[in-house]
Amino acid sequence: MPTAGGNQSPHDVRPKPMATRAVLAIVLSAFSTSLLPAQSTRDAYVIRNVRVFDGESVVERRTVLVSDGRITAVGDSSVAVPAGAQEIAGEGRTLLPGLMDAHVHLPLFGAAGALQQNLAFGVTTAVVMGTNQQGMSQVKQIEAADSFDVASILTAGPVATAPGGHPTQMEGGARSGSIPTLSAPGEADAFVAARIAEGSDFIKIIYDDIASYGKTLPMLDEATVAALVKAAHARERIAVAHIGTEGQARGAIAAGVDGLAHLFEGTTVSPDFGRFAATHRVFVIPTLSTLYSGCGKSDGPSLLKDADVMKHVKPQFRSLLEMSSPPTKLSCDALPATIRQLAAAGVPVLAGTDTPYPGLTYGASLHRELEHLVNAGLTPTAALAAATSAIAKAFRMNDRGRIRTGMRADLLLVDGDPSKQIRDTRNIVAIWKRGVRVGGG
Q1: pLDDT at 215
Q2: From 115-124, 132-141, 188-197, the region with the lowest mean pLDDT
Q3: Residue 135, pLDDT score
Q4: Which end of the chain has fewer CB atoms < 10 Å from its terminal CB, N or C?
Q5: Are 235 and 198 in contact (CB under 8 A)?
Q6: Dihedral of the CA atoms 192, 195, 197, 200 (nearest 10)?
Q7: Which residues is 428 bridged to in the sheet?
Q8: Cα separation of 115 and 69, whole Å?
Q9: How many CA atoms are closer than 13 Å to the CA of 246, on its beta-carbon side?
Q10: DSSP state letters, 306-363
Q11: Rounded-to-integer distance, Cα 383 and Cα 370, Å
Q12: Is the pLDDT score of 273 beyond 70?
């Protein structure tokens, strides 16, 4: 489906009928309604007697003070609170860092609407995994403004791929010339330099011939992937790889990438995959929601039945939940075992959805992704870290992802205890971005 860069979701490679493409064009239309800040960044407020998930662990009965858009104190009841600070009850509630989605794509029209919906679900930061040159200016403007009514973003910009490789097969991509390509290791340095000049915050590499979807496309060789990684690192940028098979995952890891933008479908996984990933110090964004959808296990029907979820889903994004992926022979049987391997080996697992995709929608699907991670073997606390501190660390966002003094006050307050019952992340009481309350349940 079109994104702000014109790229489809990386796993959205199956042929679509014209009717489906028409619906996608409608649901990704522009949306401009704003969520107005209810307070200024300078307003001080205190959340008392709240359970705090600080990005790594849970501490009971904390007092959290916020002022000037930052967390200014975290402690017990003895924290000094300035006169006039707003009091917010924390009893029976949990305060978390604002959630993050480590893998999204934005519509060419209506990017603000997508990011508003993310924010309405407590997703205060989204990592945009690919934008073409046509949409790059829009995305960078959103990123620079960091407005209170939309989720913050950082972006990969145009992806690195071979001539004729994924995603140039997407409608208009190759014809418009909006997806730059490269063919050999010697072209990597100039390619990366050009992407950074355009504003790429990190480099995304396509190392997938999409053969598992019934059509084989050209793919970069491992030497070129390694050269891209070297060029990115020389410019202090990380490099992540889109892969489609375990073999491709191993090749990308061996080439030095910092992370994988997906896991892979299949009936089995090699018993040493987790250790291999750990040895090479990579992180992994499994995108279970999208992989399960591709395997015929869409979250769409259950989300559509949830009234509390649907009241925050904008009309133009509802149709995505009503869609289903075309039938395939893909299997997701090995995914839980793969997640357990990664967790046991200490590999950082990051929560990402690959929204938009049939059966997924902005924000709501991140909460479902957390549930999938827990069902696959992560503890609820590890899943919460996967959507907060782990993403911040992997993408070098040093000002967020934790609740501690000096950090941005990107915060999510929920009823209940998601460190015990992960579904409690849906029980939204309030959301703050840079200290400003912008929405909530």
Answers
A1: 86
A2: 132-141
A3: 83
A4: C
A5: no
A6: -110
A7: 414
A8: 20
A9: 16
A10: -HHHHTTS-HHHHHHHH--PPP-----TTHHHHHHHHHHHT--B-----BSSTT--TT
A11: 6
A12: yes
